[in-house]
Structure formats: structure tokens, C-alpha cells
Amino acid sequence: MPVWLRLLAILLIAWEPVSLSLAMAPILPTLADRGPLVGVALAVRVAVAGLSVAAGLALWNRRPHGPGLARIALAFSGITQLAALLTPILPTNLAPDLRPFAAGAIVLYYAFWIAVLSRARQE
């Protein structure tokens, strides 16, 4: 397995749950005050983190469905992170004038990994 795919597998297995916990930690104590939409958003992020871990394990174990599942997980992860950044549902400490740059960085990050997966499938 190429080093890039191992790195992606580690990121999917480890970073997605860590990122989720860092995002949820300040929100959970005030969940009752924030309303049901925040609960739904957090539930979606939990599901996407679970999908990411499954995709990372499939890549790591060289399952034939691993690259396809990883592309789906990356797409959903990128969409949920963009939604969290650009909508007022979840709180963020990022200044409004920096959000377009952060959104661009998110898109580039996930597009890079999807391109790596597409190239790995061809080799």
C-alpha cells in the first residue's frame, strides 16, 4: 500500500473522531439551550465520523471497497465541515472575513484526497 493511502487511512481512523470530539465538547453542555437542529447536526457529524472510521479501516485492510467508501466518506466529511462553517447552526470562533478562506482550504483538502484515491485506483 502506498504511503499516501496509509496516511489517509490513519487520518480517517484517528483525525475524524478527534475533530468531532473537539467540535462537540463545547456544544454538548449547552445542547438543551441550542435547540433540536443542533442535535441533528451533531448526529449527522457522528454518523459521518463513523463512516470515516469504517472507510479508513477498509483502506488499511486493503478491502476492494475501501477506495470507494473512502471517497464517499471524504465527500460527506467535507460537506458537513462546510455546513458547520458556513451556517449559523453550529457555533464557530472563526472571524466572518476568514470563513471564505477556511471554506476554500476545506474544499482543497478534500479534493486533494479524493484525487489521490482516484489516482490510486488507476495504478
Protein architecture, described:
The chain has 123 residues and is mainly alpha-helical. It has one domain (3-122). It contains 5 helices and no strands. It has helices spanning 3-24, 31-34, 36-60, 66-86, 99-122. The longest helix has 25 residues, at 36-60. It is globular, with a radius of gyration of 15 Å. The N and C termini lie close together (11 Å). The mean pLDDT is 91.
Major sheet characteristics: none
Please tally the helical runs, counting DSSP H or I stretches of 4 or more residues. 5
Q: Output the helix-strand order.
A: HHHHH
Given as residue ranges, the uncertain stretches (5+ residues, pLDDT < 50) are none
Residues in helix, %? over 70%
Structural class: mainly alpha
Number of domains: 1
Mean pLDDT across all amino acids: 91
Spell out the key features of this protein.
123 residues, mainly alpha, 5 helices
Topology:
Elements lengths: L2 H22 L6 H4 L1 H25 L5 H21 L12 H24 L1
Please outline what is shown here:
By secondary structure, this protein is an all-alpha fold. The chain is built from five helices and no strands.
